[in-house]
Amino acid sequence: MTRLINKAYYAVRPYVPWRVRIGVRRWLAERLRRENSGVWPIDERAGVKPPGWPGWPEGKQFAFVLTHDVEAKVGLAKVERLMELDRSYGFRAAFNFVPEGNYRVADELRARLEAAGFEVGVHGLKHDGRLFVSKAHFAMEAEQIREYVKKWAARGFRSPLMHHNLAWMHMIGTEYDASTFDTDPFEPESDGVGTIFPFWVAAPDGGGYVELPYTLAQDFTLFTILQERSIDVWKRKLDWIAECGGMALLNTHPDYMCFDGQPAQGEASVKMYEEFLRYARERYGGVFWEALPCEVARYYRAEVAEGARNSRRKICMVAGGGSEEREARQCAGLLTRRGDWVDLITIGEACGHEDDGNGVRVHRIEQGGGAVGRRVRAAAMLMRRHYWIRYDLVQVFGNRGQFDLATMYPKWTGIRVLADWAKTAGPGARDNEYLQLVDSLMTDRFSENGNGAWRERS
């Protein structure tokens, strides 16, 4: 559904005046900020260290990573000034360029950036919002993107507009992707990954790449959409990330920075960004690991053992309460212990939301209203949460027909539904079999045989 809305929006976007677009986004942002005050700019669940996390190099408290996306000619003209600003505070950054947008990045500019210790990444193919309109279209553009990855010797990729489908990103062939975020309800695809740590995205062939979510609000969101007049949001979030020992990854755009005179429409003074660099250096200098995105990805591959790599899958379980809920909690425990995100929708005496203390977010549906009423409420809750979160898998416990209505929307969006898994209590081979099945379903290796069982695809 989100992708269909985005597809329609980007089809008419060129014909809508800038002021109208920004006015609508600001109006929506006010509502979204109120509704998401508990998870933005800080989602406490995102600060939990993944199981087996080795810490940062040299015992550093947290990682500090800077990236810049160059969207258009106006941004390209400011790249070298921004590079010099970063260097003046002792920082390096990754500049991500659009290969076939309304500008062409000169080989000489890329060479100067790399000679200064900066990184060059690929920012889609065109900045038009159409990369993910279909899998066939993505595959076609991915083939062209790979050519630029090879030509530029790029190690990383970031999708324009932060559109993402992590399962498709394997076609790009980079060491890392940076098209997600821990929490950001203002993005067109607002399903956050819920972690301030890097994580692994496995491929069906046994390979994979490192995902690096940005964890500090983007400059355009903060200063143009939300119209903030200070960097308090950045400072508050950075302090929290430092306390949690995570990765502070900031994405800014030279396109929206004003270096001279009065900021134009859609711009903010570069002094805001400079103030943040100064704050980070003066408060945390010597405490953080200042790294390029490619260095974080390389460190993750080298130091996090394959068996301990956090996949950060987002899974929703639906249960009818009682023994079904207990069974769901057993499975949820296996998933959260390896770092996955698990929501549980279940039936109780009263509706409400709670964290169970083990990393599972429980959403209770009131028991009254009869079987039909419960089905409708379960369907409404799952639809609403899947629209915003975009789960990777939905698992149903108990009477499968009871939740057929609830699972219709996830199925329609292409999400697999696992049903009738006979989970037994206690650790052992059965647990490993369950985890392997979950991973296989989400790497597109299994299909349903129509009787609640699953078979491996040929």
Query: What's the number of helices?
Result: 14
For this structure, what is the CATH class of the largest domain?
Answer: Alpha Beta
| Main sheet properties | 6 strands, mixed
Quick one: how many beta strands? Answer: 19
The assembly state of the depicted protein chains is: single chain
Radius of gyration: 22 Å
**Beta-strand percentage range:** 15-25%
Rough shape? globular
Which whole number gives the mean pLDDT? 88
Return the CATH topology of the largest domain: TIM Barrel
Helix content: 25-40%
Q: Give start-end ranges of low-pLDDT stretches.
A: 423-427, 445-458
Structural class: alpha/beta
Distance, first to last CA: 30 Å
Domain count: the total is 2
What's the CATH architecture name of the largest domain? Alpha-Beta Barrel
Strands ordered across the widest β-sheet: 14-15-13-12-16-17
CATH superfamily of the largest domain: Glycoside hydrolase/deacetylase
Notes on the protein architecture:
- The chain is built from 14 helices and 19 strands.
- It has 458 residues and is of the alpha/beta class.
- The protein has helices at 2-12, 18-35, 73-76, 79-88, 107-115, 135-152, 219-225, 232-244, 270-284, 293-303, 323-337, 370-389, 404-412, 429-442; strands at 62-70, 94-97, 119-122, 156-157, 176-177, 199-202, 208-211, 247-252, 257-258, 268-269, 288-290, 314-318, 341-348, 352-355, 360-366, 393-396, 416-419, 446-448, 454-456.
- The longest helix is centred in the last third of the chain and has 20 residues, at 370-389.
- It folds into two domains: 2-306, TIM Barrel (Alpha-Beta Barrel); 313-456, Glycogen Phosphorylase B (Rossmann fold).
- Strand 16, helix 13 and strand 17 form a beta-alpha-beta unit.
- Helix 12 packs parallel to helix 13 (404-412).
- The model is unreliable at 423-427 and 445-458 (pLDDT under 50).
- The strands form five sheets. A six-stranded mixed sheet has the order 14-15-13-12-16-17, with helices on both faces.
